[in-house]
Amino acid sequence: MILEIAEIQIPPGQQAAFEAAIAHGIKTVIAQAQGFMSARVQHGLESPERYILQIEWASLEDHTVHFRGGPLFPAWRAIVGPFFAQPPRVEHFERII
């Protein structure tokens, strides 16, 4: 299992619309992706325009090759991309304990 963590910054005042969009995108697009296991979104308290998206993938390739290289990625970005104040910072983690 691989954990993708994406740090997302949105413009001020767009929280409600972004939260609706990301929930819709996860439910209708990401959930269809090969190797998708689960997703959750965290909202910053001190930085209300900052979000952390966590997605569990069966393998790194499920995210980097199959999802990003397939037709679902443009659909996902069409839903959430308009809210990005800057490109998200994305890293992958592997559980060791």
TrEMBL record:
<dbReference type="InterPro" id="IPR011008">
    <property type="entry name" value="Dimeric_a/b-barrel"/>
</dbReference>
<dbReference type="GO" id="GO:0004497">
    <property type="term" value="F:monooxygenase activity"/>
</dbReference>
<protein>
    <submittedName>
        <fullName>Antibiotic biosynthesis monooxygenase</fullName>
    </submittedName>
</protein>
<keyword id="KW-0503">Monooxygenase</keyword>
<feature type="domain" description="ABM">
    <location>
        <begin position="2"/>
        <end position="93"/>
    </location>
</feature>
<keyword id="KW-0560">Oxidoreductase</keyword>
<dbReference type="InterPro" id="IPR007138">
    <property type="entry name" value="ABM_dom"/>
</dbReference>
<dbReference type="Pfam" id="PF03992">
    <property type="entry name" value="ABM"/>
</dbReference>
